[in-house]
Amino acid sequence: MKALILVGGFGTRLRPLTLTLPKPLVEFGNRPMILHQIEALAAAGVTDIVLAVNYRPEVMTAALKKFEKEYNINIEFSVETEPLGTAGPLKLAEKILGKDDAPFFVLNSDIICDFPFRELAEFHKGHGNEGTIVVTKVEEPSKYGVIVHKPDHPTRIDRFVEKPVEFVGNRINAGIYILNPSVLKRIELRPTSIEQETFPAIVKDGQLHSFDLEGFWMDVGQPKDFLSGTCLYLSSLTKKGSKLLTPTSEPYVHGGNVMIDPSAKIGKNCKIGPNVTIGANVVIGDGVRLQRCVILAGSKVKEHAWIKSTIVGWNSTVGRWARLENVSVLGDDVTIGDEIYCNGASVLPHKTIKQNVDGEYSMM
Ligand code: GDD
Ligand code: MG
Asked: What are the pocket residues of ligand 1 if the criterion is a CB atom closer than 6 Å to any ligand atom?
């Protein structure tokens, strides 16, 4: 089977992290975001994966080529010279996606869930029409693509409205599709949007169905959602009894849902959790309190720091008695001084912060 992952876009909403790494390579649950998808595709029997890239392809190629052997798959990089949107990249990869009559999967690269690829393929085959999109329910549908069903049919889609300004429903496009190769005939090789152009055209012909997602889902393309998505992902691992989590029998683990890389060092009398990930080679000093936060690889949190609802970027240092909270995000190689308070601070890579930052989403 074949799949295409849309890995373009500049990931501006996940700055300052994406100033250092392309969004799909930022670690979510201690592994590059896109690896969760590649692994799930490979487990469902997909052998050919096209990565549709337009932004810093060389970084992506270097980071991902090595996984071909590990997962026994072919990864093809399809590089755009200008951003082709969310549909153009499918046309650009027509030779691979249309090489046989079998349907192919398409994925947005910034979504996280228990990927239901096998069930989705089965359902798609069952209705026999051109496309199926995975849908989930959310409370705030205006940031997403919303679908409305035909009144007389449980799965056939009647309307697809991208980022509606008025309420049309709360069942949204989860960013996972399975499409027949015939869809490629509907797309021109130019910057074009699958949500604005391709889906409405397929809907008009009554050829698009929905498939309900079970369990958690999140678009983790912005810091607030990245943190919420981390909580959902860790909770789902807890439910499954996953070995990826740090055992709750460790004296410093508080409330569960904690994932610590084996190479990380944890000091004495720390209280960590719930909902914390700690990356490779991180050093946590004595008496540190961490909750609902992500500490990326190579960072150092000094004694008695207190961190909540915060992403600490790679190789950063958080000072003694520092307090970070309220969706603060530190870029790569940031230094936060001793006793500094960061409230909703967004700090650019390589900066040193010596004064308190109290403000929503300040880019320092
Ligand atoms: N190759 C390529 N080229 N990829 C692109 C381009 C491009 O020009 N532009 C965007 N992408 C990729 C992004 O990297 C992401 O993986 C995906 O296309 C969707 O773009 P986002 O920028 O993340 O879109 P969104 O989150 O606002 O909305 C989309 O996702 C929602 C679910 O999270 C839409 O598909 C919505 O309908 C959907 O509900
Ligand atoms: Mg997105």
From this structure: 6-9, 52-54, 80, 83-86, 89, 108-111, 144-145, 162, 172-173, 175, 195, 219, 221
